[in-house]
UniProtKB/TrEMBL annotation:
It comes from Ovis aries. The gene is LOC101117547. This is Uncharacterized protein.
Amino acid sequence: MDDVNRTETGNEETGRWKNFNSWIKYYFNYECYMTFLNGCYSCEWQAQQKKKARRPLCCCSLRERLFYPWLIMSFCLSVLLFFTWIETSNEFNGFDWVVFLGTGVWFFWSIVLLSFLGILAAYTTLLLISSLILKNTTPTRVYIWINFSFSKIYYMSDKYLGYRDQKHLISVFIQGTSEVLGFLLCWEKQQLYLHWYHKILVLIMIPFFLFLLWILLTFWKDRWLTIGLSLQVFSPYIHLSSISVMVLLSWPVAFYLIHLEGEARMRRYQITSNERRRNTCCSMLTKLRALQVAIGVPFFLILLCLYVVPFGTYSPCLQEKEKLAPKPTFFGHRGAPMLGPENTIMSFEKAVEYGAHGLESDVRISFDGVPFLMHDYDLTRTTNIKEVLPNASSRHPSLFQWSFLTTLNAGKWFSDAWIKPFFRMKPLSEADKERARNQKIAKLTDLLAIAQKEKKLVIFDLESPPSKHPSRLSYIHLVVRVILDSKIEQHLIAWLPGSEREYIKSKAPGFQHVGTFYTLEELAEENITRINVDYKRLYYNGLREYKAANISINLYIVNEPWLFSLVWCHSIQSVTTDNIEVLNGMTHPYYFMTPNFYLFLWIFMDILSAVFIVSIFHFHWWRESQSEKILQGITSYTEASSASLQNEVLEIMGTPAPFPERERETASSKAVIPEVVNETTAPTMHPTNDVGQPVPTEPAFEPIQAPISEANREATLQTVLPILEANEPAVPSVEKPPPET
C-alpha cells in the first residue's frame, strides 16, 4: 500500500513538474527574451519580427554604426571614473568637507557621487552588453527548423527502430543540433536601433564625464597617484585574477574562432560549387580571416603578457617575513574623530585609549589671545552657534572672545545629528552619546595636559589669525609661551610650523622640529630629522632617499586598511589617521605575500591556465568535428538507405530502380534496364478525408541507419508493398514500335 501511495505521489509530482516546465516554456520563450532585450535597447516593448541585416557581417544601419563608438566611449569613461572614485575612498571625508564649504550642507556627497557613477557605469554596460547580445541571437526559424527536424526523426525512428535505438538516436541528434545552434547563435544578426532617449543621454554623459576628468586633472592631480599606490598593493592579485578571467574568456573566444573557421570552410565549398559567386565568397573569406585575427591575436598577446608580467611587477608587499618592518605608530587626527567629537577632550582620550603614539590637532587664536582647537574656518559644522548666535555663524572662529567660545556646545552635532561625520562610523553607546553631548571647545592647554599625563607626542597645524586680529604678528610667540608655561616636556612637542624656526630653537631647544616635503639638503641645513608629508608622496620611489638618510617619516591621512598595509610594507614609521580603532586592530599587513609563495602561484596558475585553455580549444574543435561527422553520417546514410530500400521494393514489383548508380556494382554483374512499353501517364494520387478535403501528409524524410535483420526487412517489405501498390505512380514510357516489314 505504501508503495502504491509513493507511486501515486511520484506521478503527481511528475505531473506538476511537467506543467511547471510547460508554463516556463510558454511564458519564457525566445520571443519574450528578444522583446525584453529590444525593449531595453530600443524602447520597443512589442514583439516584432527580426530584421535581418543586409550584409552578414554588418548588423545595423550607418547611423547606428556611427553612434556606436560614442556608446563605447561613454562606457570607457564611466568605468574609468567609477574605478578612480572607488580607489580614492581614503579621501571621501575630505571631499565631503570641501563640498560642505561650498554648500553649507553636511552630507555624504562622496557616496552620492560614487552611487551616481556606479549607476551610469551600469547603464552604459547594460547598453553595450544588450547590443552585443542582440548581435548574436538565434532567429525563430532556427527553433522551427529544430522542432520540424526533431519531429521527423522521432516519427521515422518510431516507425523503423526499437525504443533503445530511438533513444540513442534522439540523444545524438540533440547533440548535433546543439552544435549547429551554436554556429547559428554567432552568425545570425539582430538589426540594432538604439532609442533616441538613450542616444541623448549618452551624448549628455560624455561631456559630463569629460568635465569630471578635467576637474581631476586640474584640481586633484594627486588623486591619480592613489590609483598607482593601489596597483602596487593589488598588482599580484590583479595578475592572478586576470589569468583566471582569461581562462573564462577563452571559452567564447575559442567558440567564436572555431565558428569562424567553420564559416570559412563553408565559403570555400561555395567557391568550389558556385564559380559565379567567387568574388563575393572571396571577400567574405577575407573578412572572416580578418575577424579571426582581430579576435585571436589580441587574446593571445594579452595572455602572453600576463604570463610574463611578474618580471616587471613591483609590489612592496612581496617580501620575506623577516624583512618586514615594525608596525607604524599612530597620530590621532584631531583625536579619534570616529569615536568622539573632533578636537575635544573626549576625542583625544579615545585616541589614547586605542594606542595612539601622538595626538594631532589644529590650533587657532581667539580674539583675546587664547589658543584653542578648531579646524574649520567657521563654527557652523562642529558647534551649535546657529542656535546661539545665528547672524554670526559665518564669522571666523578667531574673531570671537574665548568667554563666548566656552558657551558653545561642541558635541551634539556628533551624537544627535542624523548625518554622521563618517559614513562607516560605528554606532555609539548610550554612555558615549551622553558624554559627547557635554563636550566643549578645548584649549591648547587641555591637549598639552593629556599629552603630558600619557607621555604622547603633540603635533599641530598653527593657523595664522585673520587681518585686524590683535595677535596677527605675534601668534607664534604667543603659542610658544603657552606651551612653555604648561610645563610639558619639550621633547613631546613635534613643532610643525615652518616660520621663525630660529626663534623656536632659541626659546625651546628641546622641541622636535618636523618638516614637510623638503629636500635632503634643506632638512640637513635646518637639522630636521622628521618629516610630515601626504601619503601620496609614497608613490615616488617609496620615499627611499629619506629612509636612507635616517629621516623619520609620518604620512597623513591614512584611513583605509589597504593603504595602511602598503605603508607598513614600505617601512614607514608613523601615520596620521581618523580610523585608529580599525588600524590598531591589524596584526599584520593585508595582501602581504612572500616572493616564493607568489612564484609558486605564478607558475601554478600559468601551467593550469595553459592546460585549461588548450583543453577548451580542443574541446570546441572536437565538438565541431563530431557535429560535422554526425551530420555527414546522417545525410549520407539517409540517401544510401533510402535508395537501397526503394530499389529493393521496385525490384520485387518488377519495376526498374531509378538510381542504379548508387548501388554497389561489380565488374561481372550489372543491372539491366528493361524497356518500357507504356506511354500513358497517371496523375499522382493524394489521400483525402471523408469530406473530400486533402489531408496533409508527413514530410518526406529519409530513414536513418539502423541494424535491420532479414526477418525485419521482409516484414518491412510486406508492410510497404501494399502502400506502394495503392499509391503507385505511373511511370512514363514509350510504346515499342512494330517491326518494319
